[in-house]
Specification:
CATH class of the largest domain: Mainly Alpha
Helix content: 55-70%
CATH topology of the largest domain: Four Helix Bundle (Hemerythrin (Met), subunit A)
Number of domains: 3
Number of strands: 8
Strand order of the largest sheet: 1-3-2
Shape: globular
CATH superfamily of the largest domain: GntR ligand-binding domain-like
Distance between the termini: 37 Å
Largest sheet: 3 strands, antiparallel
CATH architecture of the largest domain: Up-down Bundle
Structural class: mainly alpha
Order of helices and strands: HEHHEEHHEHHEEHHHHEHHE
């Protein structure tokens, strides 16, 4: 029987193929998917095997796995179907328990295995993901510390204020290089969001789309420290987002602002794009209370 984590990843990849985020025939690199889902390659490889059995992937000897889109009628019938033996998202349960103070700041692996009914391998993947997202770290010798990073609304606001400093500045770096292919792909994604995806994609995927837009742009700065810092902040704030639902109505305005920034960059008006980025982030921050986490949050 497949592990719960592999099933979750398989379902996420299936949804991405059906939604067109992964194109038919596209090579699905285990390492890239592992980075995308913040897991090791082992559950990704298991997920790809499941997809091959389900008909959403083709495995070619010595080349790997390639996405396969089923006929429209069959894809539509199966798009919302749960993969066999699907289990609840234990990572999100654990994150919510930490946010709600139902877990102590110091935990042992044995305690977590018993509490969530996990195998050693499953728990290892969850703890490694938590470490990558900035809210857990192994203790010297034995056990784990759960960290208060981005656990409070104050920390969430600080993350946005940090982004308001680095993201506009990154566009003004002397090493900033405009990559038309990156801009075209971001424009395609944001336009598709406005056309259909805001209403049909799951909230977690919409949040990922917002993060991808900002991370791909800051990467163009040519300064890897900007990119690394933003990726880490985005991972840390995800912890609080797990308890909230996306405000899909507000997303229409955010996507329009994303497209405006892309248009300014395409015209070569970098200073105006930097200003628009700061204005965009200020608006996203103002949409949230600095003292209490709202029921709905933007996806950026």
């Amino acid at each position: 029987m497949a592990t719960a984590l592999a099933l979750q990843i398989a379902k996420a990849i299936t949804n991405a193929i059906v939604a067109g985020d992964i194109a038919e025939g596209e090579h699905m690199s285990a390492q890239k998917l592992a980075d995308r889902f913040s897991v090791s390659r082992s559950p990704v490889r298991e997920a790809l095997q499941l997809l091959a059995a389900e008909g959403y992937a083709v495995q070619e000897p010595h080349k790997g796995f390639f996405a396969r889109l089923k006929p429209v009628s069959e894809a539509a019938a199966n798009a919302t179907r749960e993969l066999p033996f699907e289990a609840p998202n234990t990572y999100q349960r654990m994150a919510d328990d930490w946010l709600s103070d139902r877990l102590p700041a110091e935990v042992t692996e044995q305690m977590l295995k018993e509490r969530y009914g996990l195998t050693k391998a499953q728990l290892s993947d969850i703890l490694m993901r938590a470490a990558r997202e900035g809210w857990a770290e192994p203790k010297p010798g034995y056990g784990w510390n759960l960290l208060p990073v981005a656990k409070t609304p104050e920390a969430f606001e600080q993350a946005y204020r940090f982004r308001m400093v680095i993201e506009p500045a990154a566009l003004l770096e002397p090493t900033f290089h405009l990559d038309r292919k990156v801009l075209d792909e971001l424009k395609r994604q944001q336009s598709k969001m406005l056309e259909t995806d805001i209403e049909k994609l799951p909230g977690e995927r919409l949040m990922e789309r917002g993060a991808t837009f900002h991370e791909e742009l800051i990467k163009l700065s040519g300064n890897p420290f900007f990119h690394q810092a933003l990726v880490r902040v985005n991972r840390m704030r995800r912890l609080m987002e797990y308890r909230s639902r996306v405000d899909r109505r507000r997303l229409y305005g955010q996507c329009s602002q994303h497209l405006e920034i892309i248009e300014l960059l395409a015209k070569g008006d970098i200073v105006a794009a930097s200003y628009a980025m700061r204005k965009h982030l200020i608006g996203a921050l103002k949409a949230k209370s600095p003292l209490a986490l709202p029921d709905t949050i933007p996806a950026d």
